Amino acid sequence: MRFxxxxxxxxxxxxxxxxxxxxxxxxxxxxxxxxGLPVAAEVAEVLGAPLDAAVVRLLAVSGHDRPVGAIADxxxxxxxxxxxxSLGVTxxxxxxxxxxxxxxxxxxxxxxxxxRARLSLRGRTAxxxxxxxxxxxxxxxxxxxxxxxxxxxLILAAPIGDARIxxxxxxxxxxLVCLHLPRYAHAAAPxxxxxHTVTDREAAVLLHRLAP
Length: 212
Fold this sequence. Notes:
39% of the residues lie in helices and 19% in strands. The protein contains seven helices and seven strands; from the N terminus they run αβαβββααβαβαβα. Strands 4-3-2-1-5-6-7 form a seven-stranded mixed beta sheet, sandwiched between helices. Helix 5 (136-147) links the parallel strand 5 and strand 6 (153-160). Helix 1 packs across helix 2 (37-47) and helix 4 packs across helix 7 (200-209). The protein is globular, with a radius of gyration of 16 Å.
């Protein structure tokens, strides 16, 4: 299964979500920014729901090609202890990465929301949309951050996902919806005919257009 682009994939994903969300008055759609926002925007439009962003950054350490964790705004970092130990990353190196990426999370949050407050999820149905369930660290950090706001229902949705990662993430949410789950998917891009890098400006425009 392939998708023309993120927007088309989002429309197809929305069609799968509609039967699950018959009472859609309390739904909030959140795109895992920036790449998940064009997918999430289509979902939000079909559902008639407001759109917000989930901002997460991977924690990288200089000299190592593997991320050691991820961080979302207001949450403690999610750290992969096994990778941290196998790479020999020190507490000082990890701390520097956390500090650097937290600044970037705050910068993007301010850019995306401008003068708007983030939407409260308490007691509502939160639908977290990604362009691909490929990176467990980033997605799990986003899920944990959203769960802290105590939504009544937390749904994770994506057009494409690695079956193993999806099975792992399913335990962290109330429901998981994915249109295509190949056994191995190392990147989202190969499953789309058009897959550009979503800029901060594009993300901000989408959020402004679909803000409540």
